[in-house]
Design a protein that fits this description.
single chain; alpha/beta; Spore Coat Polysaccharide Biosynthesis Protein SpsA, Chain A; UDP N-Acetylglucosamine Acyltransferase, domain 1; 12-stranded mixed beta sheet; 9-stranded parallel beta sheet; 11 helices; about 20% helix
């Protein structure tokens, strides 16, 4: 059985009260529709076709090459949305699966079960139904005395007897493709829209079977408002944390540990409370992260220690320790055995192996060699008001407290700067520079001798 997957993602999502298309609201760092795309791709082995409408360009940009898209304009109901896919899908598959972009918890196993039921019963259409604790105003599944599905009745059109039915419509359906394309043009217009659910009555009226498969309510209920969005965030976070702990990661307090779905973490790493790991972050084996660490789009090697610090686009090699209260900005690269103390900041710079960077220092646009000592209060003055300039510090250099390095400038290997120096010119290998502005020691003595 060949399957084509359609994801409906054209709606505005008015209950979100947002300028952002509903399906682009994030759950653990990803647009909720991305989870549905992943499931559809795994199930069918091909990129799904996403029906876009409200905020179409934003949705297309977010999906990139993960899915194909087709535009529904104007948005005239779910049946009308599926009609827009006909040119792309007719003749391509035996079965058409329709899912929704606001159901990030739908699973491959649940959809596969529905598809198996669909094939076994040779149904024209198969519904994914569920029984929530409170059906609220959801559409009800009406069956005959033999238990066969007869119709989906919207709550506002249901009789009191039908409103008492507990089995509800999830909206997720699959169809025999030939039957779908030959009947979808017959959908009536109700309240200015065409509803996919009306295909059920068309199938029954034509003597075709309509099957139904049960699902867990937590998988199929859409994320329609900010309350449900918060619920989804907590549920997905709990799932991510559980998977990581089962894979060998320790979390002292999972409830206060926030990890995006795109993060990977090695075994024997310990995450302390109030740790936030975001984006495409990779953390190695045997690290200690937190408490109160925020790490985004960064790569952390093995056996690193990060305390109460903020990273964005940074790289740490193995055996690095940072913090507390350090800030690593985009392009920061700390090599093996680097130590970076509290209230330091590094941006677009490389700190060589074994370098020690004391507290209250800023290193920007710099290339720092191995085994350098950067003392308290050191600043690379990399910006002249118009352009950024580079600072180079050689291996084994000692940069004294409160030194200001006015870039572009080079500090030679094993050179030393005195405390409070303002270095405006290059310092040769092994030399001592001190003063404001800094002068080389031998040059100072020569000047005095003259």
């Amino acid at each position: 059985m060949s399957i084509a997957a359609v994801i409906l993602a054209a709606g505005m999502g008015t209950r979100m009260k947002s300028d952002v298309p509903k399906v682009l609201h994030r759950v653990c760092g990803r647009p909720m529709v991305a989870y549905v795309v992943d499931v559809a791709h795994e199930l069918t082995g091909a990129p799904p076709l996403v029906v876009v409408g409200h905020g179409a360009e934003h949705v297309r940009k977010a999906l990139g090459d993960l899915a194909d898209t087709v535009l529904q304009e104007p948005q005239l109901g779910t049946g009308h949305a599926v009609m827009q896919t006909r040119a792309a899908l007719e003749g391509r598959a035996d079965t058409v699966l329709v899912v929704y972009g606001d159901t990030p918890f739908i699973s491959v196993e649940t959809l596969r079960g529905m598809l198996d039921r669909h094939a076994n019963e040779n149904a024209a259409a198969t519904l994914l139904t569920f029984r929530p604790p409170d059906p609220l105003r959801l559409g009800r599944i009406v069956r005959d005395q033999a238990g066969h599905v007869q119709a989906i009745v919207e709550f506002k059109e249901a009789t009191p007897e039908q409103q008492s039915i507990r089995e509800c419509n999830s909206g997720i359906m699959c169809f025999q493709a030939k039957w779908l394309w030959s009947h979808i043009g017959q959908l009536p217009v109700k309240h200015g829209e065409q509803y996919l659910t009306d295909l059920v009555e068309l199938a029954v009226a034509g003597g075709r079977a309509v099957a139904a498969s049960d699902a867990d309510p937590g998988e199929v209920m859409g994320i329609d408002d900010r309350v449900r969005l918060a619920w989804a965030e907590a549920k997905m976070r709990a799932r991510i944390n559980e998977q990581l702990m089962l894979s060998g990661v320790t979390m002292l307090d999972p409830v206060t540990t926030y990890i995006d779905s795109s993060v990977t973490i090695g075994t024997d790493t310990v995450l302390l409370p109030n740790t936030h790991l975001r984006g495409k972050t990779i953390i190695g084996h045997g690290c200690s992260i937190g408490p109160d660490a925020v790490i985004e789009d960064s790569v952390i090697g093995d056996r690193c220690v990060v305390q109460a610090s903020f990273f964005e686009g940074a790289t740490l090699e193995d055996d690095v320790d940072v913090g507390p209260f350090a800030h690593l900005r985009k392009g920061a690269h700390l090599c093996r055995h680097v130590h970076m103390g509290n209230f330091g900041e590094v941006k677009n710079s490389r700190l060589g192996p074994g370098t020690k960077m004391g507290h209250f220092s800023y290193v920007g646009d710099a290339d720092v060699g191995a085994d350098v000592n950067i003392s308290c209060g050191v600043i690379t003055c990399n910006y002249d008001g118009k352009h950024k300039h580079k600072t180079v510090i050689g291996e084994g250099a000692f940069v004294g407290s409160d030194t200001m390095l006015r870039a572009p400038v080079t500090i030679g290997k094993y050179a030393v700067t005195g405390a409070g120096s303002v270095v405006t010119h290059d310092v040769p290998d092994g030399a001592l520079a001190y003063g404001v502005p800094a002068r080389i020691k031998d040059e100072e003595q020569e000047a005095e001798g003259n």
